Amino acid sequence: MILYLHGFDATSLGNHEKMRQLQFIDDDVRLLSYSTQHPKNDMQYLLNEVVKQIKLSDDKSPLIIGVGLGAYWAERIGFLTGLRSVLINPNLRPELTMNGRIDRPEEYADIANKCVHEFRSKNKAMCILSRHDEVMDNLQSYDVLSDYYDIIWDEHQSHKFSALGVHLPVIKSFKDQG
């Protein structure tokens, strides 16, 4: 089972396309949609939904994958549930990058303050970063995450990362390690 978390643009057709591509790894790909507007509610909802989906599956190595804002949640929810997570162009500081676009951005800072100290050192995640991300500064993301996770650089994709194909074998291998 692969749980897919969309980014801020929840209605993008690219989400469906990425889910179709992920079906080459696992037939069971499930979209977990969330509001993107209310961080504390989104966190509680996603945590409950992931726990529910795990109980409904007999997969011994489920995986959670997120893009952009979805990667922010995949990292945290993956840690809290023990799932391996794949972070694609993660939005690591939504309280700064999403300010003016969401309600209560300060809730992201509050969530970060309540995270387990050094949770990344205890997490099982990998990260794929676009060199040509027009939204995030992925060199900063690399600086934050490279001490904790394997980082794969993509030379062609933009922030929304429409084509996962070249990375599917690595994602599958990572999933199978779980």
Automatic annotation (TrEMBL):
The keyword Phosphoprotein does not apply. InterPro entries: AB_hydrolase_fold, UPF0227/Esterase_YqiA. The keyword Hydrolase applies. One of its GO terms (molecular function) is hydrolase activity. Keywords: Hydrolase. This is Alpha/beta hydrolase. Coiled coil: none annotated.
